[in-house]
Amino acid sequence: MPVKEKETLVDDIKLDLLNIRAMVLEADDISRLDECDFRKLAWIYKNPQQQVIFIRKMHNQIIQEVLKFLFEGRNIEAVINICILYEIYDSQDRMIDIEMQLEWIEAINQHLHSIEKKVEKDVFHHGLGVWDFMRSINAIRICITPFPEDDQCLMALEDELCQISNALDRFEAEGEFNNDLDGYVEDANEK
Questions:
Q1: Alpha helix locations (H) across the chain?
Q2: In angstroms, what CA-CA distances link 153 with 29, 37, 54, 107, 143?
Q3: Distance (Å, rounded) from C-alpha 74 to C-alpha 133?
Q4: Which member of 69, 139, 171, 191 lies 3.0 to 4.6 Å from 78 by CB, making a disulfide possible if both were Cys?
Q5: Is the pTM of this model over 0.85?
Q6: Rounded to whole angstroms, how far apart are CA atoms 27 and 121?
Q7: CA neighbours within 13 Å on the CB side: how many for 27?
Q8: How far apart are the first and last CA of the chain?
Q9: pLDDT exceeds 70 at position 6
């Protein structure tokens, strides 16, 4: 897919997510998310490495919006984004976990639980439940460094993933997987 086409597609998806959030906010009904086909929205790459990078980029964008909304006191929009984040995670068969810095997790957790009793909207309590559920099933993984936003870093990461994938395919094809580490090192040294 050409770069310009990808950029247009990503912008379209951002707009779709914005419209989904607006729809739920306007209806004040989180069940409106059930009307959305997140699998169709988020599956755009056939290449698994590109798909992982794309989904991580979406996760990161949504997390940044959650933090921004919480900082601005827009708590309902923040929890709607948390629900959207879960739906995207679920649409990928729960295979691509959500990377977050520990500080972000703690900030979101503390803020949501500190206002839990003050907010009476069902949407908020549903979103809080989704947040706690994601943490309980280990959908959120703590990472030391945030996922890179820079396109060059993303391309380097994509190249690295392709090299790893190719190496694994080569090893599998040659039948060189060896449980004996010494034998593996000797085989590698001979090449």
A1: 3-27, 38-42, 48-71, 75-91, 102-114, 122-136, 151-174, 181-190
A2: 39, 30, 13, 27, 16
A3: 21
A4: 69
A5: no
A6: 12
A7: 13
A8: 37
A9: no
Phi then psi for residue 92, to 5 deg, are: -95, 25
CA 51 to chain centre: 11
Burial class of residue 143 in the structure, from the number of CB atoms within 10 Å of its CB (0-12 exposed, 13-18 middle, 19+ buried): middle
Average pLDDT over residues 141-153: 67
d(C-alpha 22, C-alpha 132), whole Å: 23
Residue 98 amino acid letter: I
Query: How far, in Å, CA of 77 to CA of 127, rounded?
Result: 10
Token match 């050409």: residue? 2
